[in-house]
Design the sequence.
C-alpha cells in the first residue's frame, strides 16, 4: 500500500488532498502516515481518525493537550512542535504533500527529500527561498518533486514529452485577484476583508491576500524560474480574469501549448497524486461554448509593483528570494493586523530588500538551509523594525 503523509492537512490544499485520498479509497487504499496542522486541532484529529493515520502533529506545543484529548482512545500518536514535524518527515513515505503555508513549510519538505520520497510541492515558498538547495537535495537522494501550484502543474503537463531546451517562453496567468480593476487611489484604502475574497479560487486567507497584491504571482514567477531552470526573461505573466487557462508553454517554433481547466486545486493535486497516471477527478468539465470568451491583459506594474520586485529578486539571486518572501510574510502579518495599509506591503518589502542587499549583499548562493533560515529571520526582524519607525 502506498504510504502517504500530508503536511498542512488542515489547510485549503490539505483538505482538498484528503478529499481526493478519501474518494480514491481512503484508509483502505492508502497507508496514511502523518497528518500535520497548526491550531485547528479538532479538524486535524478528525482527519487522522477518518484516515487512520499513524501520527498527527500540530506545529504548536500549546496545542498538544487539545490534540491528545481529541485523539483519546484512537491509538493515533500525537506530537507537537518543529522537531516533531521533522520527525514526521523522517517517517518512511512514498508521497508527501507539502502544504504548510509560508516559509515554515520549507524544512519538513527538505527533510523528506533525503529519504527519496516524492514531494508534491504546493508550498511555493520552498522554491522561492531555497530553490537550488531543494533541487540539489532531491537530485542527491533520487527524490522527485512534483509541482502542485496550478500554474506549475500546468507547465509540467505542457512539457511532458518535450525538451526544455526547445522552450522559448513560459506564460503564467493571473486572475488579477480581488483588486484587478481597482484604481491606485482605491487600493491605498483596501481593507483586509476586501483583500481576503477571491473572484475565482477558494484558498487560504494568506494566499488570497497575496493574490490581491500580486505577491502570489511574484512568488510564482520566481518558482517557475527555479523549478524549470529557465532564465527570468523567459517567464511572462498574463492577466486572465476567467482563470481557465492556467499556463502556456511557448516553443521555438512559435507553438504555444495551453493548459485549460476549471479553477479547482483538486486537478493539480490529483495530477501529482496519481502521476504518471491520470485518474478520474471530481472537477467540473469545461463547456467552452458556454464560457464563450477568454480575456487576457498585460499586468499593470504601477498598481501591482510586487511583480516588478520579482524581477529584481531574480536579478540578485542568492538569498534574495528568502529575504523577499520573509519580508512579504512579515508585511502580510502587519497588514492583517491592520498596522500598515495594502500598498505599504510592497513598499516595506522593497525597503527590506534594499537594506539587506546594501548591508550584507545577497547574491551569494546559500550553501545550507541554516543560511536561508537566518536570512529569513533577519528579514522579518528588519521588516517589523522599519514598520515601527
Ligand atoms: P492554509 O492557510 O489554508 O493552510 C495552511 C496549513 O498550514 C494549515 O494546515 C495550517 O494549520 C498550517 N500551518 C499554518 N502555520 C503553520 C506553521 N507555522 N507551521 C506548520 N504548519 C502551519 O494555506 P493553503 O492551503 O491555502 O496554502 C498552503 C500552501 O500551498 C501555501 O504555500 C500556498 O502558497 C500554496 N498554494 C495554495 C493554493 C490554494 O489554492 N490554497 C494554490 C497553490 C499553492 P492550521 O490551519 O491548523 O492552523
Sequence:
Amino acid at each position: 500500500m502506498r504510504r502517504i503523509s500530508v503536511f498542512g492537512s488542515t489547510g485549503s490544499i490539505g483538505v482538498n488532498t484528503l478529499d481526493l485520498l478519501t474518494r480514491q479509497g481512503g484508509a483502505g487504499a492508502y497507508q496514511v502516515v502523518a497528518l500535520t496542522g497548526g491550531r485547528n486541532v479538532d479538524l486535524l484529529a478528525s482527519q487522522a481518525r477518518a484516515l487512520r493515520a499513524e501520527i498527527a502533529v500540530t506545529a504548536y506545543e500549546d496545542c498538544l493537550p487539545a490534540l491528545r484529548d481529541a485523539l483519546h482512545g484512537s491509538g493515533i500518536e500525537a506530537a507537537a512542535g518543529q522537531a516533531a514535524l521533522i520527525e514526521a518527515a523522517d517517517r518512511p513515505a512514498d508521497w508527501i504533500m507539502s502544504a504548510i503555508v509560508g516559509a515554515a513549510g520549507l524544512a519538513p519538505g527538505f527533510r523528506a527529500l533525503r529519504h527519496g520520497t516524492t514531494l508534491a510541492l504546493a508550498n511555493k515558498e520552498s522554491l522561492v527561498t531555497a530553490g537550488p538547495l531543494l533541487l540539489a537535495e532531491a537530485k542527491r537522494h533520487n527524490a522527485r518533486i512534483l509541482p502542485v501550484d496550478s500554474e506549475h502543474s500546468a507547465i509540467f503537463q505542457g512539457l511532458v514529452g518535450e525538451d526544455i531546451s526547445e522552450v522559448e517562453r513560459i506564460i503564467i496567468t493571473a486572475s488579477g485577484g480581488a483588486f484587478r480593476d481597482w484604481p491606485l487611489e482605491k487600493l491605498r484604502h483596501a481593507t483586509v476583508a476586501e483583500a481576503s475574497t477571491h473572484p475565482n479560487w477558494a484558498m487560504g486567507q494568506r494566499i488570497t491576500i497575496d493574490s490581491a497584491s500580486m505577491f502570489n504571482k511574484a512568488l510564482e514567477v520566481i518558482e517557475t524560474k527555479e523549478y524549470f531552470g529557465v532564465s527570468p526573461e523567459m517567464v511572462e505573466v498574463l492577466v486572465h480574469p476567467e482563470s481557465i487557462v492556467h499556463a502556456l508553454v511557448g516553443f521555438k517554433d512559435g507553438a504555444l501549448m495551453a493548459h485549460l481547466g476549471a479553477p479547482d486545486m483538486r486537478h493539480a493535486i490529483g495530477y501529482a497524486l496519481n502521476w504518471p497516471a491520470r485518474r478520474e477527478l471530481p472537477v467540473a468539465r469545461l463547456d467552452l461554448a458556454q464560457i464563450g470568451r477568454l480575456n487576457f491583459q498585460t499586468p499593470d506594474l504601477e498598481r501591482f509593483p510586487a511583480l516588478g520586485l520579482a524581477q529584481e529578486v531574480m536579478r540578485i539571486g542568492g538569498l534574495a528570494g528568502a529575504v523577499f518572501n520573509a519580508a512579504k510574510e512579515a508585511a502580510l502579518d502587519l497588514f492583517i493586523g491592520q498596522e500598515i495599509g495594502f500598498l505599504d506591503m510592497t513598499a516595506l518589502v522593497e525597503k527590506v530588500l534594499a537594506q539587506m542587499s546594501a548591508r550584507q549583499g545577497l547574491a551569494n548562493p546559500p550553501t545550507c538551509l541554516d543560511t536561508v533560515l537566518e536570512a529569513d529571520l533577519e528579514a522579518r526582524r528588519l521588516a517589523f523594525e522599519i514598520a515601527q519607525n
Q: What stands out?
A: Residues 290 and 361 are 53 Å apart (CA to CA). The longest strand covers residues 30-37. The chain has a mean pLDDT of 97. The pocket of NDP is lined by residues 8-14, 37-40, 59, 99-101, 104-105, 122-125, 149, 201, 203-204, 206-207, 265 (CB under 6 Å).
